[in-house]
């Protein structure tokens, strides 16, 4: 697969300053498909300088013109959707249909939403004898993960551009090819030179240099809670703003009045989607004791159907990590009813779709984010017990509630300590704010709340 051998800085592809490269591996067959440069602190400095130089003109650009560039970007991404899907499938291992329907399609919807917001957002308003003016925060460091590589890029870059910020993107080293495609799309959309810049590289080198660069005003990071803590500490030392979208251990609460079969089947599908590599996945299924055995049988049967349909996890390290969690679940006394630690294929980083029963809230697999196709089914006694279990982790990113009466589900959802809850299988909304409580992060992405992260406020008194 063709890859650029340089960095996209100030509107052109420039040679990397160092000789090191990153090998991009197809996780389905373990073959190297491309090599990209491993950026250095010098590459990062060049990119940040370009972003800083481009900031005054872009910040002064009329919102309508920024909206036009985002609309053009939306159109380019839509036109290149097949190439995007094939690229994500090659470097992430996602089944092609899922890449087409999610990895390629969702970013188009998000870009479209910010094209509209850039044109309609009230960047100025009156408050008594004051005019309150919103302006771009400045240069943004966008550090994105590999699990939804293009979606996470667009969810950071699009609102930043809509706000009038300039950006340096450091994508995950496992999925840099779709980031390069995105840079091509930005160029084709006519975004001025220096407004968007791309540096590929490793987190401890390029990522750290971006976080610590004195000319970066905001760090927007999606990834693990552990890395988020380090970024928050580093940025905090410089009183630099951060937006952190981190881990999750979301609860799927099935109340007794719910359609049990539907709730279980949709819940299993949610966990197996993207090979379980979704921070908001409902990895804890909570079922009333009277329906527990039936729910476990339904979950095991549903998981078995994913054996040939699920893709690999992203790399060998992640495969070993997920399998280690499965082994720990068995060791701590959970009952394996589907899947297990053995790899289902001889080649590729595959993990069997796995379901555990008899999981207690204090078990490791019920507390820690596994990031693989592993579901824990927990038993609860009554609604208060379900709420205690649902809220009983350090995370609070997402969740789900099922009930025969929608108002019953909503009442329960309002008591959950989490940033987003799906009611009876509610659909993904690209303009609804996404982000977490507790150790699931700081700030929000998507929609007007996502735009607000990239703005700062000035009041003028008259």
Automatic annotation (TrEMBL):
* Alphabetical keyword list: Oxidoreductase
Where, by residue number, is the active site? 245
What InterPro entries does UniProt report for this protein, alphabetically? Answer: Ald_DH/histidinol_DH, Ald_DH_C, Ald_DH_CS_GLU, Ald_DH_N, Aldehyde_DH_dom
> Does this UniProt record's set of keywords contain Translocase?
no
Q: Which residues form the Aldehyde dehydrogenase domain?
A: 13-459
Which family does the similarity line name? Belongs to the aldehyde dehydrogenase family.
- Could you tell me what this protein is called? Aldehyde dehydrogenase family protein
């Amino acid at each position: 697969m063709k890859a650029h051998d340089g960095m996209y800085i100030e509107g052109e592809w420039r040679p990397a300053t160092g000789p090191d490269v990153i090998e991009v591996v197809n996780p389905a067959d373990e073959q190297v498909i491309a090599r990209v440069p491993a950026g250095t602190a010098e590459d990062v400095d060049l990119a940040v300088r370009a972003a800083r130089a481009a900031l005054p003109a872009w910040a002064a650009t009329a919102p309508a013109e920024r909206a036009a560039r985002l609309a053009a970007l939306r159109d380019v991404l839509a036109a290149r959707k097949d190439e995007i899907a094939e690229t994500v499938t090659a470097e992430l291992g996602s089944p092609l249909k899922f890449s087409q329907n999610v990895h390629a399609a969702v970013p188009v919807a998000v870009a479209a939403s910010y094209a509209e917001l850039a044109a309609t957002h009230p960047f100025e308003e009156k408050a008594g004898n004051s005019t309150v003016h919103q302006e771009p925060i400045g240069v943004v460091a966008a550090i994105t993960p590999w699990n939804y590589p293009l979606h996470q890029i667009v969810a950071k870059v699009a609102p930043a551009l809509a706000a009038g910020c300039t950006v340096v993107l450091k994508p995950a080293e496992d999925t840099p090819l779709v980031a390069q495609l995105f840079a091509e799309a930005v160029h084709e959309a006519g975004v001025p030179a220096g407004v968007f810049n791309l540096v590929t590289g490793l987190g401890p080198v390029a990522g750290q240099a971006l976080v610590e660069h004195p000319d970066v005003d905001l760090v927007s990071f999606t990834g693990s809670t552990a890395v988020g803590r380090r970024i928050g500490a580093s940025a905090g030392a410089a009183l630099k703003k951060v937006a952190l979208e981190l881990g999750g251990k979301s609860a799927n609460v099935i109340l007794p009045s719910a359609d049990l079969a539907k709730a279980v089947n949709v819940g299993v599908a949610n966990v197996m989607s993207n090979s379980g590599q979704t921070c908001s996945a409902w990895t804890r299924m909570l079922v009333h004791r009277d329906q527990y055995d039936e729910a476990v049988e339904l979950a095991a049967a549903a998981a078995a159907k994913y054996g040939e349909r699920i893709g690999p996890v992203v790399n060998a390290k992640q495969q070993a990590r997920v399998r280690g969690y499965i082994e720990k679940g068995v060791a701590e006394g959970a009952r394996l009813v589907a899947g297990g630690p053995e790899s289902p294929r001889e080649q590729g980083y595959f993990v069997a779709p796995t379901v555990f029963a008899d999981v207690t809230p204090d078990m490791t697999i019920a507390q820690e984010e596994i990031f693989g196709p592993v579901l824990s089914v927990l038993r609860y006694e009554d609604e208060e017990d379900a709420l205690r279990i649902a809220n009983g982790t350090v995370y609070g990113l997402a969740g789900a509630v099922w009930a025969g009466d929608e108002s019953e589900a909503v009442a329960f959802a309002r008591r959950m300590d989490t940033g987003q809850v799906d009611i009876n299988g509610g659909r993904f909304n690209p303009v609804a704010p996404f982000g977490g409580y507790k150790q699931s992060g700081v700030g929000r992405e998507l929609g007007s709340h996502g735009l607000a992260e990239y703005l700062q406020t000035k009041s003028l008194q008259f």
